[in-house]
Amino acid sequence: MIIFFSALSIFLIDQIIKFYVLKHLCLGQEIPIIKNIFSISFVTNKGIAFGLFSNSNFPFVLISIAVLVCMTLVFISFNKDAISKKAKIWIRIAYGLILGGAFSNMLDRIRIGEVIDFLDFHIWPVFNIGDSAICVGAGIFVLNILRSKR
User: Fold this and answer.
1) This prediction's pTM
2) H/E run at residue 120
3) Is 117 a catalytic residue?
């Protein structure tokens, strides 16, 4: 249940904000939130997280599906290991974050052919909630794998 809740939460939050950005901002438009530090900006990304490989023609939807299948297999095998109940909860949350972010970005790719990004910290490429959730989920997942090896 925690996987479903975390995935659905990330998916809905990301999609609702993307819908707002798509409907109320013009491509390239920026709304300053903290002057010269943080803005809500409307950009699109044909690449992967944080604009990487944006000039590439990789079939990112298929890659996303393959990664999700691999993550699911790793999750299933890791979840069977004799690890603490607390670690299992964190791994489930991490998996939900990754699923929610990946599905949100994949929906953008299927629907409009590119991902909508909007979080602009001016010192980093523009990104979205889904990108953040994938990175945070992967970090939590890796930390718990490393901790379980002890």
Assistant:
1) 0.84
2) strand 115-120
3) yes
